[in-house]
Write a structure and sequence with these properties.
By secondary structure, the protein is an alpha/beta fold. It has 8 helices and 11 strands. The radius of gyration is 19 Å and the shape is elongated.
Length: 225
């Protein structure tokens, strides 16, 4: 999962990232509420972990602003020192999906993330619907209409990423991290070129029930037609 963490304690932020990266997640950290809010206008995440007490605005205000955004419905976990019942009730009623009081324990956090992912229906490659395409990871091929198209590793991973997130806007940065790796420095044109290649090779278009929509300044979204 791609997870955003809003935590102003840099040491604690680094610890959370270490736990989650080791568990196979891709984490991006932010230390101020404004920085986080700017980021979610151009990036997309599967889940967010928010602190309440921040140097600029409160985590509660951040959550309210997040939930006001029509296209931002990802699960949110609060991880905070505030343990008053009124705060917990307020956060859950405002739109938080879970609430943890610090100190947060590693395995409990991971378990809660897994539980939320199940409830939210965040899918894996094993259970996604790619009809009428059939993906074969063994030889990096895609089969449809009696055709077999062999893709490069990056094209195959990119095509699967689109289907795994169908209907969802994926930023170019998210695509680069998921397909090429977190720390790879690439020109965003590389993503555009590979999207074009996938479209052409597997004839990804309305005739097969799908289309890839380019959203200027943001990225791409696979839509059913």
């Amino acid at each position: 999962m791609r997870i955003a963490i809003l935590e102003d304690d840099s040491a604690l932020l680094e610890l959370y990232q270490s736990w989650l990266n080791t568990a196979g997640h891709n984490c991006v950290g932010y230390e101020t509420g404004q920085e986080f809010l700017k980021a979610i206008n151009r990036e997309n995440y599967d889940l967010a972990i928010l602190d309440w007490e921040l140097p600029d605005i409160s985590g509660a205000e951040v959550l309210e602003k997040v939930r006001q955004q029509v296209d931002w419905h990802v699960p949110v976990i609060f991880a905070t020192n505030r343990d008053n019942e009124s705060d917990i009730v307020f956060a859950l009623k405002t739109g938080a999906d879970d609430y943890m009081v610090k100190p947060v324990k590693q395995h409990e956090l991971l378990a809660r993330i897994e539980a939320i992912a199940r409830r939210a229906g965040i899918k894996t490659e094993e259970n996604i619907d790619t009809s009428p395409y059939e993906f074969c990871s063994g030889d990096l091929s895609v089969n449809y209409e009696s055709k077999k198209i062999v893709l490069t590793r990056k094209e195959f991973d990119l095509a699967l990423l689109l289907f795994k997130n169908k209907g969802r806007l994926l930023s170019r940065k998210h695509i680069m991290e998921a397909v090429w790796g977190q720390n790879v420095e690439l020109n965003t044109r590389t993503v555009d070129t590979h999207i074009s290649s996938v479209r052409q090779k597997i004839e990804l278009g309305p005739e097969h029930g799908w289309r890839v929509v380019s959203i200027y300044g943001h990225g791409y979204r696979l839509e059913s037609v």
